[in-house]
Specification:
With 400 residues, this protein is of the alpha/beta class. Helix content is 40%, strand content 14%. It is built from 13 helices and 13 strands. The strands form 3 sheets. It has a 7-stranded mixed beta sheet with strand order 2-8-7-6-5-3-4, with helices on both faces. It has a 4-stranded antiparallel beta sheet with strand order 9-10-13-12. It has a two-stranded parallel sheet with strand order 1-11. α7 links the parallel β5 and β6. α1 packs antiparallel against α8, α3 packs parallel to α8 and α9 crosses α13. The radius of gyration is 22 Å and the shape is globular. The chain binds pyridoxal-5'-phosphate (PLP). The site of pyridoxal-5'-phosphate has 13 residues, from α4.
Length: 400
């Protein structure tokens, strides 16, 4: 069975060019970058090449790029590192819709006595700027707001936020794990102090990421025990991973404009087709300011798990914001923060496309989805004798 992979916000396929670039660093060039000999020295040079590729994509200095084990480590290091360094300003501002890699760390610090404000979002997932302005004071040490949301694709106004944070003397960290490589970002124009990205979200390898630390920004290193990465992130470097991430950034920079246009056209076609053919379907998120590859659609009155199961039977991979698929007892905190009704949160499906998604795959999904939705509606509603695709729901069965 052919797999139609529309779960690219979870992880992406490694690009062939990336794998080719990485392979020699598993067997041929296995030296340690810290060694004095030439064999190790050439590894050091390759790491610096990769650093340069990331810097070119973000338009920053290579010396501002620090390699980590991924988005989660970058987020943890940024948040804890700033809070430890800025002991006089203990207030943290974040949003209600952050990834757990940010949300959990902020709540952990709150338990340890730091003041935390989680700014609301509106029904479209846009940050409540009024509440943000009110929360931001001269006591706000760290603002950590994501660049784009992983569930809805909503893009946050980071350039505007950055200006406000700077005027108050605070530090801005952004989790740009979902944004980097999908839409351009220029760090020369935007006064972000710290930024997290992850290799496996942009057709690079898993287990490698970057923390951008703007020159002059103080953080307390969270990984001690070695001098690697200018002593900001100790530990022998994941050389193949770093090389792969560098190559992934090189490819992203080369193709970003063209891919953005092509992928968003495919996404729009998919979204429009699903809304036209599936009754009681609605899009979650800000349609105007959104990642080009993401659409989050709620098929009301049915369970996301059941939809995913039937999609899986025909080879379509996506993900859901309902409780069981997210691996927690709580359904999506993002959709709930947006005030999405309970029946719609449970029936939400995130389709996330990539540079490898084709028109034929979109056609296939458009053909397969309507009968899946119709079938589930017919068993999830208690409207005996009514056409389940048009009838208003009278009662909803608990779980399929
Ligand atoms: N931040 C966001 C917005 C994400 O979507 C993810 C992964 O899903 C992460 C952080 C964590 O990144 P990693 O898997 O590299 O630890």
């Amino acid at each position: 069975m052919k797999i139609i992979y529309l779960d690219n916000n979870a992880t992406t396929r490694l690009a062939d060019e990336v794998l080719q670039e990485m392979l020699p660093y598993y067997h041929e060039y296995y030296g340690n970058a810290s060694s004095m000999h030439t064999f190790g020295g050439q590894i050091h040079k390759k790491i610096d090449w990769a650093r340069g590729q990331v810097a070119r994509l973000l338009n920053c200095e290579p010396e501002e790029i620090y390699f980590t084990s991924g988005g989660t480590e970058s987020d943890n290091t940024a948040i804890r590192g700033v809070i430890e360094a800025k002991s006089e300003r203990q207030h943290i501002i974040t949003s209600r819709v952050e990834h757990p890699a940010v949300r959990t760390v902020c709540r952990h610090l709150q338990k340890k006595g730091h003041r935390l404000t989680e700014v609301n979002v509106d029904a479209s997932g846009r940050l409540d700027m009024g509440q943000f302005v009110e929360a931001l004071t001269d006591q706000s040490g760290l603002v950590t707001i994501m660049a784009a949301n992983n569930e809805t694709g909503t893009i946050f106004p980071i350039p505007q936020i950055a200006g406000m944070v700077k005027s108050r003397g605070g530090i801005l960290h952004t989790d740009a794990v979902q944004l980097v490589g999908k839409t351009p970002l220029n760090l020369q124009d935007t006064p972000i102090d710290l930024l997290s990205l992850s290799g496996h979200k942009l057709h690079g390898p898993k287990g490698v990421g970057v923390l951008f630390i703007r020159r002059g920004t103080s953080i307390v290193p969270q990984q001690l025990g070695g001098h690697q990465e200018l002593s900001k992130r100790a530990g022998t470097e994941n050389v193949p991973g770093i090389v792969g991430l560098g190559k992934a950034c090189e490819l992203a920079l080369k193709n970003i404009q063209e891919e953005e246009t092509r992928v968003s056209r495919l996404r729009d076609r998919l979204e429009k087709g699903l809304l036209e053919t599936c009754p009681d379907a609605r899009v979650n998120g800000d349609i105007e300011h959104r990642l080009p590859n993401t659409t989050n659609i709620s098929f009301e009155y049915i369970e996301g798990e059941a939809i995913l199961l039937l999609m899986n039977e025909v080879g379509i991979c996506a993900s859901s914001g309902s409780a069981c698929t997210s691996g927690s007892l709580e359904p999506s905190h993002v959709l709930r923060a947006m005030g999405v009704p309970f029946t719609a949160v449970h029936g939400s499906i995130r389709y996330s496309l990539s540079r490898y998604t084709t028109d034929q795959e979109v056609d296939f999904v458009l053909k397969e989805m309507p009968p899946i939705i119709k079938r589930l509606r017919s068993i999830s509603m208690f409207c005996a004798g009514k056409d389940a695709t048009t009838a208003a729901p009278c009662e909803i069965k608990p779980t399929l």
